[in-house]
Amino acid sequence: MQIQFELSFADFLAAQYLHATRNFIRRLLRIINFYIFPLFGVCMLCLAISIWSDRSPALVMCVCSFVLIGYPAYYRIKMFQCYKRTRSGDGACGLTIEESGIRMASANSKSEMSWPAFRSFRENDTIYLLYTAPGKFLVIPKRACSPEQVEEIRSLVTRHLKTVDTERA
Q1: Helix, strand, coil percentages for the chain (3-state, nearest 5)
Q2: What pLDDT is recorded for position 9?
């Protein structure tokens, strides 16, 4: 089966999110960073406004609260920089997925990997991750696949890999 796609920033974020939520601790850290810190920042800002008559502590609290509130935006900017830094060429990629393995081709590279090279597999509603090492993976966006190809990839992976993790978001 042939799949052609260009990895978009949204695909990159989806892959990083799926990779970052592999265990409870990582999920907890994500909740703290993206929900608890901004909420705490809003509460701190409200407190700083209420004690504004004492300018020095209120000013420090305002600065700290803006840092906490702005963390998700900062993280997204850093992820975009990482996305840009890791791109080579125009980003167009072609995959050929077969019973023997996967062949990848882009403007600057070609490679072929047999199924034993992949250690595990994760998927959610938008993306597939095929792991070659604990922190190294091949990203296949589901938007580039037809429903038949989605099922075919899933069946090939379950046949050839030992660890399959499906996360429905």
Answers
A1: 55, 25, 20
A2: 92
